[in-house]
Amino acid sequence: MSKLVVTSIGPASSVQDGGRPGSQRYGLVPSGAMDRLSLAAANTLVGNELLAAAVEIGPFGASFTARGGAVRVGLAGASRNADIGGRPVAFDSSATLAEGETLNLGFARGGSFSYLAIEHGIEGEPMFGSLAVNARAGLGSPYPRPLQSGDELKTQAASGIAERRIELPASNDAPIRIVFGPQDDEFADESKRLLTDSEWKISATSDRMGYRLEGPAIKHLDGHNIVSDGTVNGSIQVPGNGQPIVLMPDRGTSGGYPKIATVITADFGRFAQISAAGRSASRR
Amino acid sequence: MTIAEAQAEAIKFHALLRSLPDRLRGIEDFGLNVEALKDANVAGQAVSAIDAVTWQVAVP
Amino acid sequence: MAEPLSPPRLLPSGDSAITVEFSRTIDNAANRRVLALDRVIAAEPIAGVTETVPTYRSLLVHYDPVQIGFDALGEQLLARAAKAPPTETGTRRWRIPVAYGGEHGIDLEDVAKALGTTPDEIVARHVAGDYRVAMIGFTPGWSYLSGLETFLHMPRRKDPRLLTPAGTISIGGIQTGVQCLAGPSGWHLLGRTPVRTYQLHRDPTFLLEPGDAITFTAVDAKTFAEQDRAADAGEFVAELVRP
Fold it and tell me: Are residues C20 and C66 in the same domain?
């Protein structure tokens, strides 16, 4: 049995996969990867199912050591300086750690989250069909919480097959696209234009539940309390202070602020990768 | 954008996900990215990130 | 014959979900229609619909845009919403034990004061209520109940508490609720139940369904402690009065 031992890791790092949809009617949010395309790319590199569980690594550095045998990994998402025992490793490619070797990852560049997939997957006990961490609900496996130094990710020995890289579409920083609704009628047209025509900054207090946008205040026509209704990934809700909050995979399943618009599925991962202090413009 | 346009983009996105296995390449013809890797120590700005205070959602 | 039902509004929630809105306010009739549409979809599934989430006034329908589009799905939803709601045979009814007041319900005395009465009367009125699970949301198992009598309606706290105990029974606005996990809340805390509406590794993991009928029964602190231990071991503790 091989395993990857977490030798150092920053906050906002956890095991994530495609999530656990199907129980939102009971208040259980699906969770899952912030950037599914990058998760799928990392998994593809090592021959896993597209949305298998992998390590979602937050903006800070991390290192992992192979124990009990060699471990093959795939790296995708926000790129970082990376090396295995001093030997440089590229992102969007696979690499193998020999027993005892350490993979060192620097800070995220040009994004917030990187994905480290492990060939043969991470061993764990699926809960509602998923290993994804949802700390509030006590869910996630092998650990129902963000990763910490010393944690062990069990897997099977590396296959030893040739390493691969993956060609992904060029990244772009075009405005994030949205669809208005479901409660855009709670806002005047000029407020809606404010959303699409302004530059928004991601607040440093953003997390896997929501990204808070900082910019001009968006006014409601008729107060900011609505009767709670269902949310989706990318719901843009506007609380009383007029600063929109974009709901992320660990969101509450229902929310009581008007939702002016929704980030489109195709742009959600790209939006999730925008780092705090990075700029995000949205458009219709 | 309109719902129809967004749905078309979503369909393209799902197709991109499914196409990933076809986008694998051997590592031999690779080299450019290693250079890019050395380019630097541009530390990314961080999403400070863990603690979910309660601003995100309306509290019951 | 029944009057024709007014059609709900179809609101886009991005490219993969539709909010089917029956009302903009908390309205029992609208909530019944939400739950009725939810049941009809369960009985007559629509290809491409991946998940439905009932709330007070709307049904959120998640779908896969690869399989079905907004317009086609909207038509099917309207057709199903126009059907007479299926009669509610077999609504489940639960009796849920609550330890009111003291350390279990730290707001009981303040609520009584604010409403110009005694804690005992607040408890008597809350226990006398016949409630129904209007929706479950926010966090796992947080069950919002309709049917709170007007006398007990109270605005939410100005400053929500960041941490309230697991099992809290509270009132807020025109609602009462059963909270499962510890967490933030702006409601007034009347008591605690040992019942876990959400518990991993128990079958079923989620005890209550939207639409279930609920009554409360007052228990003393000693009974609460005993039932809390039993619930921890996986017992329901809630009494299923009518399956």
Answer: yes
Contact between B52 and A208 using a beta-carbon 8 Å cutoff? yes
Residue pair A51/A18 in contact by the 8 Å Cβ criterion: yes
Q: What residues of chain B lie within 8 A of the CB of A276, using their CB? A: 45-48
Residue C213: inside a domain: yes
Q: Which tokens belong to A39?
A: 């998760």
Interval B14-60: pLDDT, tens? 999 999 999 999 986 544 444 444 433 333 333 333 333 333 334 45
User: How far is Cα C212 from Cα A212, in angstroms, rounded to an integer?
Assistant: 36
Give residue C135's domain range: 93-242
**CA torsion angle A269 A28 C176 C232 (round to 10):** -140
The SS3 call for residue A161 is coil
| Average pLDDT in chain C | 93
User: What stretches of A83-231 show up as alpha helix (H) in DSSP?
Assistant: 189-197
Cβ contact, residue pair C210, A127, below 8 Å = no
Instruction: Compare all CA atoms of chain B with the CA of A38 and give the residue at the minimum distance.
Output: B17
pLDDT beyond 50 at C173:
yes
> A-side interface with C, Cβ within 8 Å?
21-28, 127, 136-139, 179-183, 226-235, 252-254, 259, 262-265
**Does B3 sit within 8 Å of C15, measured CB to CB?**
yes
Class of domain A176-283: mainly beta
